[in-house]
Amino acid sequence: YNSAQLPATPFIKEVSAAQDVSDRHELEDVYQYHSSNDITTPPFGFNSWNFYHCNIDERILMKTADAFVSKGLKDAGYEFINIDDCWQVMRTTDGTIVPDPVRFPSGMKALADYIHSKGLKFGLYTAQREFTCQRRPGSYGHELQDAATYCEWGVDYVKIDRCAGASYSNLNESWILFKQGFEKCKQQTGRQIVMSVESCDEVDGCGEYIAELANLWRTDGDIRANWDSVMRNLDENNGMAPVARVGHYNDPDMLEVGNQGLSEVEAKSHFALWNIIMAPLLIGTDVTAMTDEVLAILTADEVLAVNKDTLGKQGVRVSPANTTGSEVWARQMSDRSVVVGLLNRGDSSTNITVTWDMISLPASE
To answer: Which of 239, 151, 147 is CA-nearest to residue 201?
Structure first.
């Protein structure tokens, strides 16, 4: 066991090669599997990667689910408990994905059942290529099989990374197959599996079809717990705003609120901006040990209310470019009001001016 009281490495088993796939799906198939959508706001929840990385097991996820209930996160609207990379170790001879039997001895179905018993939802991670980013078995050549397995386990959310090894020639081929599998699961169970993919950052490229496939898609690289990283992901996400709509969201990556590297002011700004830009809110810190100050940021009712609005209009930067680092962000709401965010990127206090025209409201209102 390591210092986190988890089974120490090595615990990776040999990964069998992905099967060869000859049945390739054409781009026009993208639209064949567009379906009704139960997702009316961006997903709120937890993802294990930012804090735990590979030091994760079923006990941590169960304690996180408990903390969601006891600390009021569930009541605030957070519902997904998602595990990222490192839960899978191999495939059986018939290709079925196998969870790490040491770290997840109860199995994924039992873990999902526990999380569901708390009134929450369960999500997990895979990759569209042969290997995940941590060299675990990816889903290349196994998309429909994995989708059926996830359905049987009771999974409610799947993050599909890209990463290493063999892959299809077209970026969306794996996504199309997963979409088919998740649609079949919904037909069988009535349960929608939220589909999160990585990545799409071109309005005139993948942006032309991504919302027909996925519920959310990453728009930039992995976020870090520092201000420059938060601002970079914010800027990249802004360019994809025209693509977002109800049930389909740009994802600037998980929250770093509560992790060392951001000041309290930076954490509050990070959180407020993610709500304004209609981003998924996946907590990336240890919720079982977070401070009251961090909890207060994550459960701020007035801020969360912005992201619970169902108009589906992503907030954007509305101020002209300038050299002072002062910016105005605005998001239209379903009651015709506009939420305004004032962002000062500079090192000193400054005055920021907002005009009616800037936020698309006539002065009479």
So the answer is: 239
Coil/strand/helix, residue 187 = helix
| Predicted TM-score of the model (pTM) | 0.90
Q: Identify whether 161 is a catalytic site residue.
A: yes
Catalytic option among 38, 75, 222, 235: 222
User: SS3 for 97?
Assistant: strand
Give the sheet arrangement for strand 80-82, strand by strand: 249-251, 216-218, 194-197, 157-161, 121-127, 80-82, 44-47, 281-283
Query: What three-state secondary structure class fits 253?
Result: coil
Candidates 57, 84, 146, 161; catalytic one: 161
Exposure string of 150-165, with b = 16+ CB inside 10 Å and e = fewer, is: bbebbbbbbbbbbbeb
pLDDT in tens, the chain (365 residues): 444 444 444 333 333 333 333 333 333 343 343 445 689 999 999 999 999 999 999 999 999 999 999 999 999 999 999 999 999 999 999 999 999 999 999 999 999 999 999 999 999 999 999 999 999 999 999 999 999 999 999 999 999 999 999 999 999 999 999 999 999 999 999 999 999 999 999 999 999 999 999 999 999 999 999 999 999 999 999 999 999 999 999 999 999 999 999 999 999 999 999 999 999 999 999 999 999 999 999 999 999 999 999 999 999 999 987 878 999 999 999 999 999 999 999 889 999 999 999 998 776 55
- Up-side HSE of residue 348: CA atoms within 13 Å toward CB? 1
Report the Cα 26 to chain-centroid distance in Å: 27
- Does the annotation count 100 as an active-site position? no
